[in-house]
Fold this protein.
Amino acid sequence: MARRIAAVVAYAVRPRVSPVQREWCDQILTDNWKRHDECIRQLDFVLGLFSQGGIEVLSLKGPILGRRHFPVPFLRRPSRDIDLAIRESDLERAANHLVANGYRQQGSISEAKLTNHHLVMYSSNRPRVELHTRLSHGPRGIRVDEFFGRAAVHQLPTGRAAAIPSAGDELLGLLLHFANDRFSSFFHMYELRRVWRSAHPDLQAEVISRATAHRFAAVLWLTDLAFQLVWSETFLPEGVSVPNTWLQHRLNSHLLAEMEKNVATLGPRTLARRLKGRWLDLQTTDSGSDALVMIVLILRVARRELFRI
């Protein structure tokens, strides 16, 4: 946890610590600034590639979020990758553009569509690029196609205009990103809290309504519980209604603790650990039919892996 918010801590305590401790703060802040600057330059490079190819993308999270929601942009933990939203119909073309510029593709596009919400592209000397066709939660996640019509624009320090999600879409993405990590990432919760608290109550209500409509009521309940446990405050605004789920009684602090333990466990992802993770995920579905959809997806992925073996 300390590594992920070290820059925020260093920035806050620097005026009140000894000269020796201030050196630590300065080193942390300098390192973050360098990494933030590198992320901006690499984002500009990738956006330039897609612009030349006529491929429309949205920049998710990353340094742009830091520039808009943090008092000093590089206080946000510098990203290890570049997250871009892209229409599924443009996915193959976008991947080909990156391959032509030194990237390599992780798995096939058909496999990414079946098992994940993004396609990962690697480079030996640049941050990896994740091409998101859905916000999160694998193939059952929310398609990003609808976000393009509501997109906003942010100008990078390089002068390039980068398309970004609307305020509501961004908040929905941060909420689901926190949930997709099984509610275990303190940094993602900190970031969500920071953006959420600055949002107008009407926007908060809109995001909650959309999350519920997309069958993520359990995510809202567990996020609210996580906020209570960590911050001693609620995530859900007073007077906003969220429907109960079919396993409402399972949405408790024990489930959150089991999720954190599953994510934090060191070592290889054994079959037993993976099955435990899937069982935890099933408990966050809104209804029995949603759970059945997830089970079908799990079986499809398992069949594909067995066939590959």
